[in-house]
Design a protein that fits this description.
A hairpin with a 2-residue loop joins strand 9 (221-224) and strand 10. Helix 11 (304-316) packs parallel to helix 12 and helix 19 (594-613) runs antiparallel to helix 20. The protein is globular. The termini are far apart. The chain is α/β, with parallel strands linked by helices. InterPro entries: Metallo-B-lactamas (IPR001279), RibonucZ/Hydroxyglut_hydro (IPR036866), RMMBL (IPR011108), RNase_J (IPR004613), RNase_J_2 (IPR042173), RNase_J_b_CASP (IPR055132), RNase_J_bac (IPR030854), RNase_J_C (IPR041636). It is found in: Cytoplasm. Residues 116-310 form the Metallo-beta-lactamase domain. Belongs to the metallo-beta-lactamase superfamily. RNA-metabolizing metallo-beta-lactamase-like family. Bacterial RNase J subfamily.
């Protein structure tokens, strides 16, 4: 009986075990909404955009319900995504485990430990997206260099993986390097209306009209490989600026771009703080935030305060021309200058190539609004009384070739500064430009102009968030990890301290350098192996052909000058037929230094005779010996070290 009872029990267990999987298989398949499938991912296209609702009160369903990754993966991964809609970063652990050992990489190629040339790379397995492609303007020691762009060697090695470039806004430090990058990478570019309007102008200049430009709006979802990029409206010193919420297989990354919190923006388009808060409540893996103004306490003033100052200044300037220097891309500032001019019955003329280009694009796209008869050509300003003229020009940073600098140097083809002119510098000097700016102020004052700048009146407000605004973004987003970007090291480090003051652990904050790699996996975040990064110099049409050696030679020439030694040697005997002749450039004036030059010729003659006596006749050795002997003589005589260039010629 015992054996029979055991047999019955075993058969019951067998039936129960066989019945469990059968019961699970009878469960109804999930609906489309449960699967998280949307029209945008059902086409099979690699890149497709899908508009979503822009209302802050009714966010897109995809944003809160849709799982982080929708590409084809094993069924076990899909199942885990269906069961776990992401509400907290910790809840996303199930999706992380399903992703296996694959790492999400954030790779800044520019914008860290510097101001400008912002570029950030996101990579997951074989998919790469790039946020921004900016340039930087050269420092004083980069002699002859026009602009500096990021080194994109890493992107060129992985060109087939790059799905697209997304742009936060239209400033040069975020879009200026794009034409050079697109010559190497044939990928689509995504940006808002004004941003792409400015990009189109650049691409025409560089003869790249075939680039695929795709316009986006805040709230839209952009599918780029495994990434889903959502633009979020922010305020900045240029219209149509956005931040990005980037959905990845391991969580959501928020990159703010450049921003400030302006509650009374000129165009009425307020920053979408509700969306940032919503993302924070759903769970944000990491935050990348603008650090440019983090060392300044308080809040950045609204752009409208500048408009009020302009109106007051224009009312008081009853008998003079007004010249306003500003950043060409600051369309809101230009609008306020136009408004103040209109209220005081003045005509407006634009001066400076970039100012003319940007204003034309902004007028065409409707970002600048004014009566057509208020705008006149700079060539026609002499047809109007001085108290009816406003000139909006470039040159607020004292740039050498800018329109304002040419006016101050009496080199402008259409106008010259005269006593009584009022010049307003509506900007603050970028770090490193202070000397150039004050040189312009001095020159303008010497010409009799009345110069107004930031320290004298509220003629400029920053476009970057100060400490209290940054604290608000951190509090709303509540990231698990934080990466400060956009700034010198002092800015990045202060932003780290600010995040720690708000309660973040130091171990969850990462300060990188350009080329550094931050890797996210199921185990957390860590610093990975760096990639090649750095600066590429643009000199005229040359891209990268000027390196450190060339810059060293330019610096040497600029500091010490050049001496050229010309010697003619006999083709038959190899002996000196003529010379040595000495040519000095930037070293000494030969006619006033005859004794020094005669001594130099004697040293060269003696060195050549010494070499010939030892039967040394190969030119390389002769040049090296002559160069060393002359260099020693000149240093002993003058304590200077000019560049010495021997030239040997063979004659019959």
């Amino acid at each position: 009986m015992t054996n029979q009872r055991n047999k019955d029990v075993n058969e019951s267990r067998k039936k129960l075990n066989e019945g469990e999987p059968q019961k699970r298989n009878t469960r109804k398949p999930p609906t489309k909404n449960q699967r998280g499938d949307t029209a945008k991912s059902s086409t099979g296209e690699k890149v497709k955009t899908t508009p979503a609702k822009q209302s802050a009160k009714q966010p897109p369903k995809q944003t809160s319900k849709q799982p982080s990754k929708q590409t084809s993966k094993p069924s076990s991964q899909k199942s885990s995504q269906r069961r776990s809609p992401r509400k907290q970063v910790e809840v996303a652990a199930e999706a992380k485990n399903a992703a296996g050992d694959s790492a999400l990489k954030i790779i800044p190629l520019g914008g860290l430990n510097e101001i400008g040339k912002n570029m950030t790379v996101y990579q997951y397995e074989d998919d790469i997206i790039v946020v921004d492609s900016g340039l930087a303007f050269p420092e004083d020691e980069l002699l002859g260099i026009d602009v500096v762009i990021p080194d994109i060697s890493y992107l060129k090695k992985n060109a087939s993986k790059v799905k697209g470039i997304v742009l936060t806004h239209g400033h040069e430090d975020h879009i200026g390097g794009l034409p050079y990058v697109l010559k190497e990478l044939n990928v689509p570019v995504y940006g808002t209306n004004l941003t792409l309007g400015l990009v189109e102008n650049k691409l025409k200049e560089h003869r790249l009209p075939k680039t695929k430009l795709i316009r986006i709006v805040p709230g839209q979802i952009i599918k780029l490989g495994v990434f889903e990029v959502e633009p979020i409206r922010v305020c900045h010193s240029i219209a149509d600026s956005v931040a990005f919420a980037i959905k990845t297989p391991l969580g959501v990354i928020v990159q703010t771009g450049d921003f400030k919190i302006d509650y009374t923006p000129i165009d009425g388009q307020k920053m979408d703080l509700h969306r940032f808060a919503q993302l924070g409540s759903e769970g944000v893996l990491a935050l990348l935030a603008d650090s440019t103004n983090v060392v300044r306490e308080g809040y950045t003033m609204s752009e409208r305060t500048v408009g009020e100052t302009f109106e007051q200044i224009f009312r008081q300037a009853t008998s003079s021309r007004i010249i306003v220097a500003s950043f060409a891309s600051n369309v809101h500032r230009i609008q306020q200058i136009i408004n103040a001019a209109y209220m005081n019955d003045r005509k407006v003329a634009f001066s400076g190539r970039s100012m003319v280009n940007v204003s034309n694009v902004a007028l065409e796209l409707g970002y600048l609004k004014c009566s057509p008869d208020i705008i006149i050509d700079i060539k026609d300003i002499d047809r109007y009384p001085e108290n009816e003229i406003v000139v909006i020009t470039t040159g607020s940073q004292g740039e050498t070739m800018s329109a304002l600098t040419r006016m101050a140097n009496s080199e402008h083809r259409n106008m010259e500064i005269v006593p009584g002119d009022m010049v307003i510098l509506s900007s603050s000097p970028i770090p490193g430009n202070e000397k150039s700016v004050y040189q312009i102020i001095n020159k303008l004052t010497q010409k009799g102009a009345h110069v107004i700048y930031e320290s004298l009146a509220d003629v400029h407000v920053s476009g970057h968030a100060k400490q209290e605004e940054l604290k608000l973004i951190h509090t709303l987003v509540k990231p698990k990890y934080f990466l400060p970007v956009h700034g010198e090291y002092v800015h990045l480090n202060r932003h780290k301290e600010l995040a720690e003051e708000l309660g973040m652990n130091s171990s969850d904050i990462f300060i990188l350098s350009n080329g550094g790699v931050l890797e996210f996996s199921a185990k957390g975040a860590k610093i990975g192996k760096s990639v090649q990064a750095g600066r590429v110099f643009i000199d005229g049409l040359g891209v990268g052909d000027v390196g450190n050696i060339v810059l060293r030679d330019r610096k040497h020439l600029s500091e010490d000058g050049l001496i050229i030694i010309a010697v003619a040697l006999s083709e038959e005997t190899g002996e000196v037929v003529n010379g040595p002749d000495l040519i000095s450039r930037g070293f000494v004036y030969v006619r006033e230094s005859e004794a020094l030059m005669d001594g130099a010729r004697s040293v060269i003659d003696a060195e050549l005779k010494r070499c010939f006596s030892k039967n040394i006749k190969d030119w390389a050795t002769l040049k090296s010996s002559v160069k060393d002997a002359l260099s020693q003589y000149i240093y002993q005589s003058t304590k200077r070290s000019p560049m010495i260039l021997p030239i040997f010629m063979e004659v019959k």
